[in-house]
Amino acid sequence: MSERFFSAKKLAVMGVLTALSLITFLIENLFPPLFIPGAKLGLANAFSFIALIVYSPVEAFIIVGVRTLLGAVFAGNLSAVMYSFTGGVISMALSSVLLYCVHPKISVISVSVVAAAFHNLTQNAVFVLISSTPLAFSYAPYLMLLGVLSGAFVGAAVTLIIKRVPTDMLTRVLGVKGKSD
User: Fold this and answer.
1) What is the distance between the terminal CA atoms of the chain, rounded to a whole angstrom?
2) Which of 86, 60, 92 is nearest to 72 (CA)?
3) What is this structure's pTM?
4) Which of 47, 54, 127, 136 is the most buried (most CB within 10 A)?
5) Is 132 left (phi over 0), alpha (psi -120 to 50) or beta?
């Protein structure tokens, strides 16, 4: 491993991003689902997406994994790890490919929309596989629509944060040069 993975500053920033993601997840978990059982806006994903943009996929995957595990423990729903972790890993992998291979031909918001839609579809597929309930796939169109809406919202928020936070602050706090859309 390179020295950058052991930087105290980077670990501290990753800890803050993970904590913000976890707190956002727990607050969002207090509200009722959006239209479909279990459906949430997914605001916690903004912090792993920021890590993907300013660092790399490795840091983003670490934040997704830690937030998913701690979120399930704190929310008292360990079975949710199967859904959240699988959806998070698939959507982060897709975000990584799109961000590093296709961006800037497509926007950060577009990457977020695609990732959110696939996150929802992955969770739906895991539910169908575990419960042996193929009828649950009838939720897929609604989950795609919610994924588009939530992905657009999260992507817009991340874009605003990355563009509005001064580059010198990103360099000082995160230890990286600011990237934008």
Assistant:
1) 29
2) 86
3) 0.84
4) 47
5) left
